[in-house]
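User: What would this chain look like folded?
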Amino acid sequence: MFYYAFIIPLICIFDDMEQYSFLRSGLLLAFTILYLVKPAHAQVSTEQLRKHIFTLASDKMKGRGTGSKEVNKAAKYIEDKFQEYALQPKGENGYRQSFVAKVTRVAVKDSIRQSDNIIGLIDNGAPHTIVIGAHYDHLGQGYQGSSLDSLGVGQIHNGADDNASGVAGLLELARHYSSNNLTEKFNLLFIAFGAEELGLLGSKYFTEHPTVLVENIHWMLNMDMIGRYNPKNGLAIIGHGTSSKFPAIFEGLTSDIKFFVSKDGNGGSDQTSFYKKDIPVLFFHTGGHEDYHRPGDDPEKIDYESLRAIIELEIKVIDRSMEQPKMDFIWTN
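Assistant: Here's the prediction, encoded as structure tokens.
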């Protein structure tokens, strides 16, 4: 209702009421349009990123070890967000695709564990689909193996960077594309993978039991450890060589952060499972640090402003990829 304070004083300017009436009608129409038209997209929110990471990497989550009650709480959190953003369930039981994961790196009594991929779709009625993924599990308290702190086994490994940061990016991209009031040229499939830390098990299971046709996947974007940006090293974007279309997509691309690309599609995260199915991939990663796979990987150490910039860069890449025809695949090694 603020526009009345602007319009009413104009009465004194016009002696001709017909002129005033015409101006008033025009201004009322303009402000009505401004009020009703929503922005073209949901702005990436550092507040939302912080909320997701502090929730998923809190001590209450006890490190989100595969098969734990806490990792199931994390899965439920992601499910609830997918539902809030009106993503279509695309698992095998609602949003969930369940599978059996096995601990192989260490000897434990409960080596066979239940895990889930959480899968949601923005269905634009398009022939092809872009997959966006991140894994939500971590090391628990170090007993399942992979902890790099021998004295830290038994302590909570919160995994704020690895990989609550990637899941936060996944959720912000889901929020963005579900609220931008556009019908994109491609469908968007969002997957939170389980049991990545046990050997990429969730992504391997999905690519062996896909809920969309593999041959219709345009390409796959993976986020793993994107929360500890180091300006000296920059952001690594791996997989640039897996399609002949990526150079055109990146041509002239700018960002508030420094980034570099490398060709190989293989790597220690979930994009590898898609690469092995002849699907072009990009893997966004800010590199290792002293808290990697240790109890010190905590939410307050995340660089939230750089994380926001990384997701904004990803949006540019995704949007540019939608201007390309179905992307070809190149084996890089």
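Residues 17-36 form the longest helix (20 residues). If you want, I can go into more detail on any region.
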